[in-house]
Amino acid sequence: MASRWPTRSTPSSCATRSATAGRSRPRPGRSRRSTSSIGLRGDGLDRRRIFMQHSRNFMQQAPTPRSDHSAPARREALRRIIGEGGVGRQRDLVRLLGRVGYRATQSSISRDLRELGVAKQGDRYVLPEAATPAPGGFAAVAAFVRDVQPAGPSLTVIRTATGAAQSVAIVLDRAGWPECVGTLSGDDTIFVATRDRAAQRRLIARLHQHFRV
């Protein structure tokens, strides 16, 4: 008797092997993309390694700036720079000191110039032994002073021509006026400290008398 149910045909072994081989065979496009991405990742890793190596080499070779606690050595370097001539601004001195490994600011440079006795002649700084004595003291620098103004009861501000503040401050320091507690100069500004308002009034009267401002 014939069966009412349809019989299922069993696939041949050849067809089975063919289908299995088709599933396991990698697609050419996918293989190329995978290889390319691996290559890019490897190339990026190499670039990072090269960059890190160059960074380490640069940090090892770059001079480490010395801090302000090495003031005597910094002043000796400053003396050598000024002795070579041609420098007329404090920011240039800061930059040149940085090149030889000394960290400085314009405030520390101002103190160093005062300690070294450096003067400003023309448009450049000169060491005391190279400076030409200025005859007349106040008369020699009076033309550089532009204005004198009080700033509170104990501080007086003197404005000068650009680059002349240091020379004027040296003249004030050498005068030895009892009203002056101390001075601090930049390129075109001098701050003069006094003990009180009475001393400040006497100082300003002296400045007006000598500088005609």
Produce a short descriptive summary.
With 213 residues, this protein is an alpha+beta fold.
3D architecture notes:
With about 210 residues, the chain is an alpha+beta fold. Among the domains are: about 70-130, Winged helix-like DNA-binding domain superfamily/Winged helix DNA-binding domain (Arc Repressor Mutant, subunit A), CATH 1.10.10.10; about 140-210, 2-Layer Sandwich (Gyrase A, domain 2). It has 8 helices and 6 strands; from the N terminus they run αααααββαββαββα. It has helices at about 15-25, 30-60, 70-85, 90-100, 105-115, 140, 165-175, 195-210, and strands spanning about 120, 125, 145-150, 155-160, 180-185, 190-195. It has a 4-stranded antiparallel beta sheet with strand order 3-4-6-5. Strands 1-2 form a two-stranded antiparallel sheet. β1 (about 120) and β2 form a beta hairpin. The longest helix is centred in the N-terminal third of the chain and has 34 residues, at about 30-60. It starts with 12 loop residues before the first helix and ends with a helix.
